[in-house]
Amino acid sequence: MSLLVVGLSHRSAPVSVLDRASLSTEAQTKLLQDAVAAEPAAEAAVLATCNRIELYADVDKFHAGVAELSTLLAQHSGVGLEELTPHLYVHYEDRAVHHMFSVACGLDSMVVGEGQILGQIKDSLARAQALHTAGRLMNDLFQQALRVGKRAHSETGIDRAGQSLVTFGLEQLALGAPVETWAQGKKALIIGAGSMSSLAAATLARTGVREIVIANRTADRAERLVALLGEQYGQSPAEGDDTDVLARAVPMGSVPFELTRADVVVSCTGATGLVLTADAIAAGVEGRAGARPETARGGLPETALRGEAPQTVRGEVPEEARTASLPPVSIGTDEDCPLDLSSVPPGFSVMGEAAVAGMDAATLEQHAAWAAGSTVDRRQAGRRGVGADPVDPELIGALAATAASVGRIPERRRPEPVAGPPRPEPVLHLLDLAMPRDIDAAAHRLAGVRLVDIEALAQASADAPMAADVDQVRRIVSDEVAAFGAAQRAAHITPTVVALRTMAADVVAGEIARLEGRLPGLDDKHRAEITQTVRRVVDKLLHAPTVRVKQLAAEPGGAGYADALRTLFDLDPETVASVSRAEESTEKNAKSATIAYIAENRGPA
């Protein structure tokens, strides 16, 4: 059996695909159950976070395992296999171990060095153990990954290379200002009461916010988080100490009202639909500012904000709203330009790729010729090659091919900006850490609102500097991978060695019994001395080969020594398998006994 991981992350897939492929807790449970029910996999575990979905399994066939795990990921994520496959990565055996250890150390995180991943790995292992899908390999791998991650954080300065996703997100909201200064005196609304929301609440409490409101569908969890905040950072209203933070819990139905009071909103729930729509956010800003906010220049029309146009895809702007904002824009009023510049708001360069978002093929040809410096008759626009050569023939040709196949150039969410009127200072800061997203992406178009989501964090972190300690962590990972592989390979040959020694003991016992039949008058003292001598001879003969074979098996490529040992001594494969089963049974019994002992001696809570 061998370790295999199939997954996708922020490094291999766009946020839109990760958003759609995210797994609920129920979906993770079903995925694990189906994985171990599949033929190639004996045990499995799922690691699902806001920016990765990975399925680990112990398989006996590589190609069959990859096909089966990929199919299961597609089925349970709801994303078609053909669409999902280009974004999947596969790691096998030592490479899979290296990937897991790198993840545990924060080397593969969106924010390098963040430590929250350790809690997520721990939760993933606990889920697999509860569902009985984790066997020896999954337990060894995940537990060792936790130890390696803790070692990396304790022995190096990897924490300086990055922060938690929450801290990084708050830094993006603060636009370069110190978070402690930016957050001082603000009111925060936290939507959700899970681990990420708890981390956000604690982080904001440490930065000096004046008030934290927790909204959650389950009131008990929200109250529990409020109690924890009160113990560590809080005060009673009578104390009147402005340096401490007040925390309170509210039902989800109070979120619209709390939006009119909050300065900062952090949302991270497991909801499958939007928690905050653009309409709700606009209403919150209106209630705060006293007037309904207008959209930013080039943003959504008012009808979209009122919700009059239905959304065909969750979190996606309706077609009417998209086409309304698509016309290319210009900073000039050239009469030769084939575009209707009078109806287009300013803000983007007419010469860039962003300018042609939404054009059909004919208009694109005309625009290309105009950009090259000549005018074109619109009646001739549909012909290729009309007018002067375009500024960038390859780019225009590629865009024309796209327009011909899909009808128009797709909109770019972040076109190429030029100097334009500045946006007003935001009065409401939104941080969306959920996957799939909790907050409507259209909110970034609203004046007075600043939205930072997973996609924005991915772009911001792409250029983040990495600390020198990262190299040291990579060395730790390499050393730990080698040690883990050696231990696994040595453990693989142990049942064979045990079976060999068992066979030798049986041979000794048989020969002693035969000796007693031939020498019935042998007294007990001499019988014991002869028995011990024969056993010593056998032990000495087996000692050097068994020690050496364990050393050789621990080296890369040493898996074949177990087969060689079984062949040389003609060991029964069933005997070796029975030793393995006995060891697993002993481990389970010991674990059960430990749990029972702890429960028995824990005493009253």
Describe it for me?
- The chain is α/β, with parallel strands linked by helices and 605 residues long.
- 51% of the residues lie in helices and 9% in strands.
- The chain has helices at 15-21, 25-37, 62-77, 81-84, 94-104, 116-130, 136-155, 165-174, 179-183, 195-207, 219-232, 255-259, 278-289, 302-305, 319-324, 361-372, 393-406, 454-461, 469-518, 524-553, 560-568, 573-601; strands at 2-9, 41-49, 52-59, 89-92, 187-191, 211-215, 246-250, 264-267, 428-432, 449-452.
- The protein has a 6-stranded parallel β-sheet. Strands 2-3-1-4 form a 4-stranded antiparallel β-sheet.
- β2 and β3 (52-59) form a beta hairpin.
The strand line-up of the biggest sheet is 7-6-5-8-9-10
**Shape type:** elongated
Helical segment tally? 22
Structural class: alpha/beta
| Tally of DSSP β-strands | 10
Task: Report the mean per-residue pLDDT as an integer.
Answer: 75
Largest sheet, in brief, is:
6 strands, parallel
Q: What is the rounded distance between the termini? A: 43 Å
Hey, roughly how much beta strand do the residues contain? Answer: 5-15%
Helix content: 40-55%
Low-confidence stretches: 236-243, 291-335, 339-354, 374-391, 409-416, 586-605
Radius of gyration: 32 Å
What are the SSEs and their pairings?
Layout: E1 2-9, H1 15-21, H2 25-37, E2 41-49, E3 52-59, H3 62-77, H4 81-84, E4 89-92, H5 94-104, H6 116-130, H7 136-155, H8 165-174, H9 179-183, E5 187-191, H10 195-207, E6 211-215, H11 219-232, E7 246-250, H12 255-259, E8 264-267, H13 278-289, H14 302-305, H15 319-324, H16 361-372, H17 393-406, E9 428-432, E10 449-452, H18 454-461, H19 469-518, H20 524-553, H21 560-568, H22 573-601
Parallel strand pairs: 5-6, 5-8, 6-7, 8-9, 9-10
Antiparallel strand pairs: 1-3, 1-4, 2-3
